[in-house]
Every structure is written in structure tokens, then in C-alpha cells.
Write a structure and sequence with these properties.
Layout: H1 4-9, E1 15-17, H2 26-34, E2 39-42, H3 48-61, E3 66-71, H4 78-87, E4 92-96, H5 101-109, E5 113-118, H6 121-130, E6 134-138, E7 144-145, H7 153-163, E8 168-171, H8 177-185, E9 190-193, H9 195-198, H10 207-214, E10 221-224, E11 232-235, H11 238-249, H12 254-258, H13 262-269, H14 294-315
Parallel strand pairs: 1-9, 2-3, 3-4, 4-5, 5-6, 6-8, 8-9
Antiparallel strand pairs: 7-11, 10-11
């Protein structure tokens, strides 16, 4: 499944891991890179020391390319973080949750491949004009923090592909070979996944979180934060229900923001505490029903996508 994207990233398969914020883990990222995809460490709001430690552990586990995600408006010192990534010679950096333009040229001066996460055609074209190498287009189906416009992956990808010349990667609502084949059919060069990688053997997340994904239906996620323009897609849990009630009862966003910090994220994802923490989850969770190794997942996805695309060509 080699194409322009895999050649540019020096990976075997057009599959990228989403950032996952503070719960990113070197073991999972390295497993994805070793399986032929692009593993990612999410910087979240971690200190430079914490990010550096995760990067150093990742490179002891894999000699393949990997990525670090910088959520610009989330991290307290994005300028210092970007400089740290330059100093550590990180091969690929993805920029999200903010204006990437001030960082793109600096990263590219140091031969770092830059991925920009976009949720609109306007964002994608601006990122390309600023020098982005790859555009990840994330639809409203995705887990975690989402864009206010709520465009779906199915509608967003072909519109962005039509307007930019750099490789486009589809994110949101993808978990198997059918999703990979669909993204390629829409003109994307690959996919980015988060929720699907949660339910894998190498993922460090609590079994309660993994089981919630595996047992999910098409109605198992909920959007919170619309009232405050802070949209998040979460698994439906008792804590998510508390956030829904907070949003109904409080016009001021302060309490909501206090209850959606990364500490509460870690409580849900890493400690499996559905009473005191939230669990991000994409709409695609309803399609996930097992917990394979990363290598098994990627091999199965690629084989299924190849078969679907071959059958489509045979019918032409």
C-alpha cells in the first residue's frame, strides 16, 4: 500500500496514530511504528521533561520513524516544546488545536516533516500555504476534542483533497480495512486512528476502558461542551453524564473546564475510574469488538483494504 504518504514518512503502511494527549505511551507508539505505521506521542500539557522522557523511551523501542503531536492551545509552552523537539531531532511533528503557521517554517528548517490537523477546508489550505507537508482532516466522528463546525469525515475529505496538493490523511470514524479503503477512495492517502488503537494488547489503558470500547454500540458516545464551545466526544459513562448535567445547569464554563482537565482524562483512561474521570471515544467504537495486537490489527486492516480495492477494480 505504498504511496506518496508512506514514501514521505518512510513507513510501510498509510496508518498514523492519533495524539491521545497526556495518556500517550511509548510502548504503543513504538508498536505501531514497528508494525509499519507511524506511532505518535501526544505532548498534551506535559512538561518538557515528561515529553523528553517519553521520546527517549520511544527511540529505545523502535528504530522506525515516529511522531510527536503538539496541541498548540493546550500546551502551556508550545514555543519551548517545539524547540525541544528540534533539539531531540524528532523526525515528524503534528500540530493541532491552534494556529500552526508560526511553527511550520522553523520545524522545516530542521528537516522535520510537519503534519497539520485540520477540520475545515480553510484551515487545510492555510496550513498548506504555510508549508505543511501533510494535512490530517479530522471529522466530527472522532474522539476527544472536536471542532465547532462538526463536519463529518465523509464530507470533509473529498473537499480538502480538491483544494490542496499535499497528501491528505483521513481521521475520525475509521477502525478497519473498510474504513481505510473508503478513505483512499475519497482521495486521502492514508488514515489516522485513535479509538481503534485503544483496544489493542500494547495499549496501556485500563481494561475497563478497553472493554467499554469493545462493548460499545453506535449509541455509546456523547458530545459534551457545546454550550461552552469546548466540544468533546466521550464514551457514555457516569462521569460523562455528570458533565452533561453541569452543562445544563451552568452558564459559566469554569466548572466544566475544571472537570475536563488531563487529570480527569488520566483517571478515566489509565485508572479505569468511570466515576471520577472521562474516557474519550469515537463513534467508530460501535464497530470494534476485539483486542488484537497492534501488528495483527494493521496486517488485517491492510489485507482487507487491498481486497476491497481489488474487487472494486475488478468490477470496473
Amino acid at each position: 500500500m505504498g504511496n506518496v504518504l508512506t514514501e514521505r514518512l518512510n513507513i510501510d503502511y498509510p496508518i498514523i496514530q492519533g495524539g491521545m494527549g497526556n495518556i500517550s505511551d511509548p510502548g504503543l507508539a513504538a508498536a505501531i511504528s514497528n508494525a509499519g505505521g507511524l506511532g505518535t506521542i501526544g505532548a498534551g500539557n506535559m512538561s518538557l521533561h515528561e515529553v523528553s522522557a517519553k521520546i527517549n523511551e520511544t527511540i529505545t523501542r523502535t528504530s522506525m520513524p515516529y511522531c510527536v503531536n503538539v496541541p498548540i492551545s493546550v500546551h502551556p509552552n508550545p514555543e519551548q516544546l517545539v524547540q525541544e523537539l528540534i533539539d531531540l531531532k524528532v523526525p515528524v511533528v503534528s500540530l493541532s488545536a491552534g494556529n500552526p503557521s508560526p511553527f511550520i517554517s522553523l520545524l522545516k528548517q530542521h528537516n522535520i516533516i510537519v503534519i497539520c490537523v485540520s477540520s475545515t477546508v480553510r484551515q487545510a489550505t492555510k496550513a498548506e500555504s504555510a508549508g505543511a507537508d501533510i494535512i490530517v482532516c479530522e471529522g466530527y466522528e472522532a474522539a476527544g476534542i472536536n471542532a465547532l463546525n462538526e463536519s463529518t469525515t465523509m464530507t470533509l475529505i473529498p473537499q480538502v483533497v480538491e483544494k490542496v496538493n499535499v497528501p491528505v490523511v483521513a481521521a475520525g470514524g475509521i477502525a478497519d480495512g473498510k474504513g481505510l479503503a473508503a478513505a483512499l477512495s475519497l482521495g486521502a492517502m492514508g488514515v489516522q486512528m485513535g479509538t481503534r488503537f485503544i483496544a489493542t494488547k500494547e495499549a496501556p489503558f485500563h481494561d475497563i476502558y478497553k472493554q467499554a470500547i469493545i462493548e460499545a454500540t453506535d449509541e455509546s458516545t456523547v458530545i459534551v461542551g457545546r454550550r461552552y464551545n469546548r466540544i468533546r466526544r466521550l464514551m457514555k459513562t457516569s462521569y460523562a453524564n455528570k458533565l452533561v448535567e453541569i452543562e445544563k445547569e451552568n452558564e459559566c464554563p469554569q466548572l466544566f473546564l475544571e472537570k475536563t482537565t488531563e487529570e480527569h482524562h488520566k483517571a478515566g483512561a489509565l485508572l479505569g475510574d468511570p466515576e471520577n474521570g472521562f474516557m474519550n471515544g469515537g463513534q467508530i467504537a460501535g464497530l470494534i469488538n476485539d483486542c488484537p495486537t497492534v501488528n495483527e490489527l494493521i496486517e488485517t486492516m491492510v489485507a482487507e483494504a487491498k481486497q476491497i480495492l481489488k474487487l472494486s477494480l475488478d468490477k470496473v
